[in-house]
């Protein structure tokens, strides 16, 4: 991964890395010796984190003030439309109709000058104390399903109540993300803690097989991110 090489170079010069998703964090750890780095977690349950040696990163928490309700995908899509790449910002948090995003300090002026509307509605960016959400933990809705297989296409078809051919079409259209990568293999067998997103249907985590039925089906548990 090119981003991993860039992060290694930053650490070599005693600079914090970019925000890294869980996959990227695992890849970077493989290339580093234990005890030679620290991990900056913006809040208790954060997914995207920053590695550093001795100098902690400079991160800003921005609240997005909006007069209308917003969805995670709408905020994310608008940020990407400004040509801001994913390593420059952390998690987007929606809590009690408040919207927050962690960003690297350097892009705060650019965001304030360019992130002016979401869903054709004016928004305002407010710098917020980073400690506000330090103990935040993600909220999930637990879902149990009966499925004949642990194949990802079968399980997603059950979740969104559609056919497997429709799921295969979504995969072809790059509408499903598995563990932060575009899903390419519709026969992938889900494993515990796999995270997957379905465009327009939300983000999920596969938790476990609860039990196997007499008919050799599976009762499984997934979390849906709220």
Which topology of the largest domain does CATH recognise? Answer: Structural Genomics Hypothetical 15.5 Kd Protein In mrcA-pckA Intergenic Region, Chain A
Order of strands, widest sheet: 8-13-12-11-9-10
Principal-axis shape equals globular
Please state roughly what percent of the residues sit in beta strands, choosing from under 5%, 5-15%, 15-25%, 25-35%, 35-45% or over 45%: 25-35%
CATH-defined superfamily of the largest domain? RNA-binding S4 domain
What order do the SSEs take from the amino end to the carboxyl end, as H and E?
HHEEEHEEHEEEHHEEEEE
Tally the beta strands.
13
Rg computed from alpha carbons, rounded to a whole number of angstroms: 19 Å
Query: Which stretches of 5+ consecutive residues score pLDDT under 50?
Result: none
Number of H/I helices? 6
Mean pLDDT: 94
What level of helicity do the residues show? Answer: 10-25%
CATH class division of the largest domain: Alpha Beta
Q: Could you tell me how far the N terminus lies from the C terminus, measured between alpha carbons in angstroms?
A: 31 Å
Return the domain count. 3
The largest sheet, given as strand count, sense and whether it forms a barrel, is: 6 strands, antiparallel
Label the CATH architecture of the largest domain.
Roll
Class from secondary-structure proportions: alpha+beta
Give a verbal description of the structure.
The chain has 226 residues and is an alpha+beta fold. The protein has three domains: 2-52, no CATH class; 59-133, RRM (RNA recognition motif) domain (Alpha-Beta Plaits, 2-Layer Sandwich); 140-225, Structural Genomics Hypothetical 15.5 Kd Protein In mrcA-pckA Intergenic Region, Chain A (Roll). It contains six helices and 13 strands. The chain has helices at 2-12, 22-30, 72-81, 108-114, 152-160, 164-172; strands at 38-40, 50-52, 59-66, 89-95, 98-104, 117-118, 121-128, 140-147, 176-178, 181-182, 195-198, 202-212, 218-225. The two termini are 31 Å apart. The model has no long low-confidence stretch (mean pLDDT 94).
